[in-house]
Design goal:
- There is one protein chain.
- With 289 residues, the chain is mainly α.
- It is globular.
- The protein is built from 14 helices and no strands.
Length: 289
């Protein structure tokens, strides 16, 4: 059974991360790391709110204040459609078109676009290095790069680095230069934290909140103005996630995919049309200046 546990890894290692990146990324998200990819992409999005120019625009739209669950669901749908079906499929193209239409209402700096794109690559890889039931192989890391690089091109993002290593250097340099506290960081961060807490029974939330802080690194906590978790709690959260990884390693491989969109979407209990996903049309162009 343990040999069989790695059957998808063996398949992935036979694929070309340039030509087959959609297939590899599909297997990563649907079969190998579905829970981890979802959690790490949540952290990735939250990380982008540590940049004042990004959080200012998000705060201006009012989506985080008035419709946090729908904002989460809309992002999950657009990203999930591209991951599950491929950005070059009919549904993937619709999702990309819808995303570009939504972004087109706003003035967004190219460097901010590029940074957000980079977090979708590197945050899941870093999460996996800490908490994965197995480490991602080179083909998986490169597939993530080529997948999101192609999405970035179709978003008309300029100056996307040609290599994984160059984009990672950009990601780290951008954070070093742009992560700092602002009131809008705090407001968007608090709205996102409170959304996560709303998924749990009310009696659990006072215990869950410090756990959220324990999963965020110190630069993120400072940028949001959140309290730092105690070293003991941070260590306990890391240990729990590593225990989970060891248990998952003993499970047989999935025979059926598990994608986020296969579950019920709270904001769309009867289903959705991709063309109607996103903020209402009265959320017009706004400047991030």
């Amino acid at each position: 059974m343990l040999l069989n546990r790695y059957k998808n890894l063996h398949l992935i290692q036979q694929l070309d991360p340039v030509q087959d990146h959609c297939r590899i990324y599909y297997l990563m998200n649907g079969y190998e790391f579905p829970w981890d990819m979802t959690r790490s992409l949540e952290i990735a999005l939250m990380r982008t709110y540590c940049v004042p120019s990004i959080s200012k625009l998000l705060n201006q739209t009012g989506e985080f204040t008035h419709r946090p669950q729908k904002r989460y669901d809309d992002t999950s749908i657009i990203v999930g459609e591209m991951i599950q079906w491929g950005y070059d499929s009919d549904r993937g193209k619709q999702a990309l078109q819808r995303m570009n239409a939504i972004h087109g209402r706003f003035k967004i700096d190219n460097d901010d676009f590029l940074y957000v794109l980079s977090t979708f690559i590197f945050d899941p890889i870093r999460w996996n290095a800490r908490f994965g039931w197995r480490l991602m192989c080179e083909q998986e890391k490169l597939a993530a790069f080529y997948f999101w690089r192609e999405v970035g091109k179709q978003m008309q993002i300029q100056n996307i680095p040609e290599t994984y290593e160059e984009l990672e250097r950009y990601n780290l340099a951008y954070e070093h230069q742009n992560f700092r506290y602002s009131d809008t960081n705090c407001r968007v961060g608090e709205a996102t934290r409170d959304l996560f807490l709303s998924w749990f029974p009310s009696w659990m939330r006072s215990f869950i909140k410090p756990g959220i802080y324990a999963l965020l690194d110190e630069t993120m906590l400072d940028a949001f103005g959140f309290p730092h978790a105690s070293p003991l709690l941070r260590s306990a959260m890391v240990s729990l996630l590593k225990i989970r990884a060891r248990l998952i390693r003993l499970f047989p491989p999935r025979n059926h995919p598990s994608f986020h969109l296969d579950s019920s979407i709270p904001s769309y209990p009867t289903g959705y049309e991709i063309a109607n996903v996103g903020p209402p049309e009265n959320v017009k162009r706004q400047s991030s200046d």
